[in-house]
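Our consortium's second objective concerns turning raw sequence data into structural hypotheses that experimental partners can test. To show how far this objective has progressed, the report includes one record in full. It was chosen at random from the queue rather than selected for favorable results. The single chain below, 150 residues long, was entered without modification.
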Amino acid sequence: MLKKLLTLLVAMLLATATWAAVDVNTATEAELDGIKGIGPGLSGRILQERQSAPFKDWADFIGRVGGVGNKSAVNFSKEGLTVNGKKYSAAAAAKAEAKNNKKHSSSQTADRKARGSADKEAATATTPPATATAAPAASAPAPSASASKN
């Protein structure tokens, strides 16, 4: 009877240890590696980003850590990962998506502006000035359609 009770107690302790929440802002590399789906590379990126500033929320976490998206955040949360003690939620997903869209749209706008000004500069640089004394270009005879390639 004592063996069964002791076994049950150990099993309960192990079960609670595996389901204990791991906060991304305080976790060690080993604790992060213990979350299913987080390996040494990802835990290293998390710790590196955390050095600059703690993560405010899930949207901040997803936005700053490369390789983490909404789907992986859901899985990490199910495995016990939290950000400031909070599990991942649909509201966090919407906020992360809006932040991600804003980041992409602003970078795309900047890219378009840069390309537009580069195109304008290229067009003005390659367009020769119009002169009244320009000679007509000599045209070379067009190759015949039946010419064979050697």
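The partners drew two points from this record. The chain has a mean pLDDT of 76. The helical segments are 2-19, 29-33, 40-52, 58-64, 70-78, 90-126. Both points have been shared with the crystallography group to help prioritize constructs.
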